[in-house]
Design a protein that fits this description.
Two copies of one chain form a homodimer. Helices cover 27% and strands 24% of the residues of chain A. In chain A, α3 packs across α4 and α6 packs parallel to α7. Chain A has seven helices and 13 strands. The first copy, chain A, is an alpha/beta fold and 254 residues long. Chain A has a five-stranded parallel beta sheet, with helices on both faces. In chain A, β2, α2 and β3 form a beta-alpha-beta unit. The N and C termini of chain A lie far apart (53 Å). At the A-B interface, α1, α4, β5, α5 and β6 of A face α1, α4, β5, α5 and β6 of B. β7 of chain A pairs antiparallel with β7 of chain B.
Amino acid sequence: MSGRIAVIGLGPGDPRYLTAEATGALAAAEALYGYAPYLDRVPARADQSRYPSHNREEGARARAALGHAAQGANVGVVSGGDPGVFAMAAAVCEQIETGPEAWRALDVVVIPGITAMLAVAARIGAPLGHDFCALSLSDNLKPWPLIERRLDAAAQAGFVIALYNPVSRARPWQFSNAIERLRRHLRPATPVVFGRAVGRLDERVAITTLGEADANAADMATLVIVGTRETRTIARPERPPLVYTPRAAAEVSA
Amino acid sequence: MSGRIAVIGLGPGDPRYLTAEATGALAAAEALYGYAPYLDRVPARADQSRYPSHNREEGARARAALGHAAQGANVGVVSGGDPGVFAMAAAVCEQIETGPEAWRALDVVVIPGITAMLAVAARIGAPLGHDFCALSLSDNLKPWPLIERRLDAAAQAGFVIALYNPVSRARPWQFSNAIERLRRHLRPATPVVFGRAVGRLDERVAITTLGEADANAADMATLVIVGTRETRTIARPERPPLVYTPRAAAEVSA
């Protein structure tokens, strides 16, 4: 069995975020599968077939790519950000576990990428400079009460919180509920960063506070970072402010 | 003021993890500062000065680099992994906040990189495929009881846990204490991944369980990922196993 499937992290969207390894894997693939807007970031080549698909079809996309690889092909599955963070790597593993035995013989490679929280954090300073967590607000795959429990636990224990998938057309109320929930635990002055489409032409990064955060300011392409009581904002007269969380914490910081 | 300071993420250690942006920033810098083993990864150039320093000198290193940039230079500070994750970006922000006013006028750029947990996760499948947290076990900068509280909170709420800095010569007991602590909340069968020096010649990635995890198997270069009750291991007859955490969670998973 010579088939190979590479799950390739494209990073946040600009080619400058691509690693050398991802560039090499994109070049080596005979076929590319992926959510159409991610595939659109990869220049088309006559000798490389392309199979775009819709969002929320991760399972079917992974099965198609695995089936193709099982024919002996070198197949790439492109993923925004890092494939291991709320993206395609888990979907591919799920299908390998439940699919034909032959899929377990494939060479499976996951190629890491810059996930959104790292890109947004870098744009604004170092808000993830201390212990932090990454939490998807999508309740398509888990019940909302579990998300609330995790928000409570993270805020009470003093983790910086990176929120993925804050809203979508089908999930309009989740993010405002999450903000309300976090206000129970964290002070109104807690810094909050909204980072949208980092590295793309329509990039927008904004700093606010938990007290003033407006849930309507987030959309599907937004990553939100909520600080702790230690997180600080540095005003700079001629530059945008920096937001960072100090490396040291003196006590329980919730 | 034309000074510029770029905090550059080198990723886990092999050039294949470098982003195009990091490669460009390394090329553009007139001077490079960093922990000596990280600087050693960057080929020396006659027209680029280098200022290696020891570990645990982050504050002094950041001050020296900022002072150099304030003279109008384009200065790079290299960081292993991602500069924003337990690395140099927060140290630079701390010094900007407390240092001379002129440092606030500098152009500050943070260039994200592949942090260790993403590289280790990619090597083994998708263990971070669901909500997760990143926690440093170093109690140099925070009290141990706060670390225990965070371990409890993360395990009880069902976050996958990435442990940075599990041990060092000066901190021999912290990691075994952390394992004991997690055993109060998680089943012995919970998958645990030890990833050491990923992407380097001495790379070693091992899968075990929380019940069988041996604290002595970790050193300073090890990143540990502790799964949840949902995390699964896929046996593959002709390949190493895959570890992944499914995207879906049915209920509170601690």
